[in-house]
Design brief:
The complex is a heterodimer of chains A (about 100) and B (about 400). Chain A is mostly beta strands and about 100 residues long. Chain A contains no helices and eleven strands. In chain A, the strands form three sheets. A four-stranded antiparallel sheet of chain A has the order 2-3-4-9, with no helix packed on it. Chain A has a four-stranded antiparallel sheet with strand order 5-6-7-8, with no helix packed on it. With about 400 residues, chain B is an alpha/beta fold. Chain B is about 25% helix and about 30% strand. In chain B, the strands form seven sheets. Chain B has a five-stranded parallel sheet. Chain B has a five-stranded parallel sheet with strand order 9-16-10-11-12, with helices on one face. In chain B, helix 1 links the parallel strand 1 (about 5-10) and strand 2 (about 30-35). In chain B, helix 1 (about 10-25) packs parallel to helix 7. The longest helix of chain B has 15 residues, at about 295-310. The chains are: A mainly beta (about 100), B alpha/beta (about 400). The interface between A and B is medium-sized, with 15 and 22 residues.
Chain lengths: ~100, ~400
């Protein structure tokens, strides 16, 4: 298990998402409307589409390609065509940096 | 209920209806019948990234056999409905069997519009709708091969892009002065057209097809101006027609699709129709009657039909939404651009742009955009919500890239 620095706190707008690539992997970093940070795997579970190009509304991220929905806080798949949950990762904020534990 | 819910058509719409029926009712019997031999599969990838994918062993299923069985959905493949007995509440099939229903959903979709001149589909001439159609085309997607395509619509152009990616030569023959005339704004069609030309596609617009000659080793297309296109394979993509024979024979009202009301009920209130096969009123445009051939409409209407088959009276609320992938470009359209009379352009960087379509009163009625990858997706999605909210946005704000579109939602 290791903590990786993903971005600065100001890099993501409130109620928005940012793509974070690390090695061969890609992640999505979210900032909720109430200013908390979350992280999930970067690709939609339906097709290999970067979720960071999608729209965040409250605690939902919507895939930019086919509007599959997930709760980014829990990873739960919330609407067709997606049926497989997203993997989520622990997040902490230290000294203005957003860190995720990617294991 | 004795017969329960029966769905004719194993495409996106039918499957979404079946899954939604089970989600809302844990006990009602559900039978889903598809004419193709495969389990229900996703059609959009067939002409897009799936076109060149010969590693997959079959089409990408929408729901696995396990998932359908787990939801107690009886799935029958390779079975075509032939008759609807409205008095007896039964559907008769080509294998001689009959299934009773309490509520019936017709989700038979659309099929390629035939070109009489071309004669029947053969090894060198084909249409494009099914996984089997994709398999027939695949051997021709290779260097040294030449594919001619009649029709510069979504299907023709997506396949042109896929064929170029695989090194085949491509000629697109379009009857109108430009490609994608039917639903795509000119500014966006121009971007797509320029890209195809840059990728080496030979594009003949305003071209009339005079003759098609199939030979053992090639197919020859003769155009009105005397030009001749010699190809290894001819693909015909001149639009689609709704599959309505079953509904018409049963005496249901048909007019450019099975006619339904805003709750997707046909002229027989126990029979519903949804997806590409139906003509429906769009409440967001004052009841304008349309028929859509698109994936999200099939998905949304399948789910809505399910809720109404269980006794609901929920009206259609979704906005039309289309997308197309060609090369690394993605086009998205929310709403119907022809509903607008003026256009506001917003450039979003990297050559991507959004067009907002406003009606005479300044209401936002549609938005279309094109860009690399999913560059326009977020803005189109917000535009869709703005349209549904009935927002009358300030044109200067829409055009200004620094305006956060989301902020207009709160207004």
């Amino acid at each position: 298990m290791s903590w990786v620095e993903a971005c600065n706190v100001g890099d993501v707008d409130e109620e928005d998402v940012l793509r974070f690539d690390h090695g061969e992997r890609t992640f999505a970093i979210y900032r909720s409307p109430d200013d908390e940070y979350f992280a999930t795997e970067g690709f939609c579970t339906h097709e290999r589409t970067h979720l960071a190009d999608g729209l965040v509304m409250d605690d939902i991220i919507e895939c930019p390609k086919h509007n599959g929905r997930f709760n980014y806080k829990t990873g739960e798949a919330r609407g067709a065509p997606v049926c497989v949950n997203l993997k989520t990762y622990p997040v902490k904020v230290t000294d203005g940096k957003v860190l995720i534990e990617i294991g | 209920m004795a017969g329960g819910m029966v769905i004719i058509g194993g495409g996106e719409c039918g499957v979404r209806a079946a899954l939604a029926l089970r989600e809302h009712d844990h006990h009602v019997p559900i039978t889903l019948v598809g004419a193709e031999k495969y389990l229900p599969y996703e059609r959009p990838p067939l002409s897009k990234e799936g076109l060149a994918d010969d590693t997959a062993e079959g089409p990408r299923t929408i729901a696995t056999a396990e998932r359908l069985a787990g939801a107690s959905i009886i799935m029958a493949c390779g079975k075509a409905a032939r008759t609807i007995g409205r008095q007896a509440h039964t559907v008769g099939f080509d294998d001689g069997t009959t299934i009773p229903y309490d509520r019936l959903l017709i989700a038979t979709g659309a099929e390629p519009r035939p070109l009489a001149l071309a004669g029947p589909a053969t090894g060198r001439v084909g249409y494009f709708r099914t996984y089997d159609d994709a398999l027939r085309l695949r051997p021709f997607l290779a260097p040294g091969r030449h594919i001619a395509i009649i029709g510069g619509g979504f299907i023709g152009l997506e396949i042109a892009a896929g064929a170029r990616k695989r090194g085949a030569a491509v000629t697109v023959i379009e009857a109108l002065p430009r490609v994608l005339s039917r639903v795509v704004p000119g500014e966006i069609a121009e971007v797509i057209e320029a890209r195809h030309l840059a990728e080496g596609v030979a594009l003949y617009c305003s071209a009339r097809v005079e003759g098609i000659e199939q030979r053992a080793d090639a197919v020859a297309v003769t155009l009105g101006d005397g030009r001749r296109v010699l190809a290894d394979f001819l693909l015909i993509g001149i639009g689609a027609v709704p599959v309505v024979g079953l509904a018409a024979a049963a005496g249901l009202t048909v007019d450019n699709g099975v006619v339904v009301d805003e709750t997707l009920r046909t002229s027989d209130p126990e029979i519903f129709a949804a997806g590409d096969c139906c003509s429906f009123p769009l409440p967001v445009y004052g009841g304008r009657r349309v028929r859509l051939e698109c994936w999200r409409n099939a998905l949304d209407q399948g789910a809505l039909a399910a809720r109404n088959m269980l006794g609901g009276t929920e009206p259609i609320s979704a906005l039309p939404w289309f997308w197309s992938d060609q090369y690394d470009l993605t086009l998205q359209i929310a709403g119907l651009p022809d509903q607008g009379s003026t256009t506001v352009r917003r450039d979003t960087g990297g050559g991507s742009f959004i067009l907002f379509h406003l009606d005479g009163a300044g209401n936002l009625v549609a938005a279309s955009g094109i860009g690399h990858g999913n560059a326009v997706a977020k803005d189109i999605r917000v535009a869709e919500m703005l349209i549904q909210k009935g927002v009358r946005p300030d044109a200067r704000q829409l055009a200004e890239p620094s305006t956060r579109l989301k902020s207009l939602l709160a207004a």
